[in-house]
Amino acid sequence: MLLQKAMKKLFAIFFLGLNILSYAQEKPVAKMGIFTKTIVIEGDTIPLIEIRQVLIFPQFVFKNKRQAAKYDRLIYNVKKVYPFAKLAGAKIREIETNLGYIKTESLRKFYVREEEKKLKADFEEDLKKLTITQGKILIKLIDRETGNTTYQLVKDLRGSFSAFIWQTLARLFGSDLKAEYDPYGDDKKIEMIIQLIENGQL
Fold first, then answer.
1. Are the C-beta atoms of residues 97 and 91 closer than 8 Å to each other?
2. How far apart are CA 79 and CA 33, in angstroms?
3. Do the Cβ atoms of 100 and 139 come closer than 8 Å?
4. Using an 8 Å Cβ cutoff, are 137 and 145 in contact?
5. To the nearest 10°, the Cα dihedral for 9, 13, 15, 17?
6. pTM of the model
7. pLDDT tens-digit profile of 34-86?
């Protein structure tokens, strides 16, 4: 009797095992894991995991909350205008490239005027909303992106008289189109903020 019960249990286990094997063959169990790059060194395949670079700058020591708030405001202002500076740099390079294919001076002037109209239509309202401080930062960042001051860009594209007029207007609002970007001096903090933005840390 005991032998008979033991045999029944054995058969039950046996058939259960067959069912499990059959199910596993019909529906393979997915293997868990991750995909990663690899590199082969002397015949051995080794996982290649790229670690994102993290920028570390000396911590600023603020004497009071007012100084800390001023720095936070600088971060906000740079983040606000940096996309405009990047766009300006890309647009200036595009315009300069296209001007190289235009032979006559009249067509070059026409092309610049048309591009100016497009930019005005697309971004005038957004630029009007910038504060004076943000405008000053943008002027410097355009120099950073293009290698030319805003004054020089206006002069090259629109002529000396237009550059003079725009510079006069800028002066009235406390700005200077001839302002140059100095990443190692006056604009050291701005440069640090931009690098952190570009690296995804801000």
1. no
2. 38
3. no
4. no
5. 180
6. 0.68
7. 677 788 888 888 877 777 777 777 777 888 999 999 999 999 999 999 999 99
SS (H, E, C) the chain: CHHHHHHHHHHHHHHHHHHHHHHHHHCCCCCCCCCCEEEEECCEEEEECCCCCCCCCCCCCCCCHHHHHHHHHHHHHHHHHHHHHHHHHHHHHHHHHHHCCCCCHHHHHHHHHHHHHHHHHHHHHHHHCCCHHHHHHHHHHHHHHHCCCHHHHHHHHHCHHHHHHHHHHHHHCCCCCCCCCCCCCCCHHHHHHHHHHHCCCC
Q: Distance (Å, rounded) from C-alpha 99 to C-alpha 48?
A: 45
Query: What's the chain's average pLDDT?
Result: 78
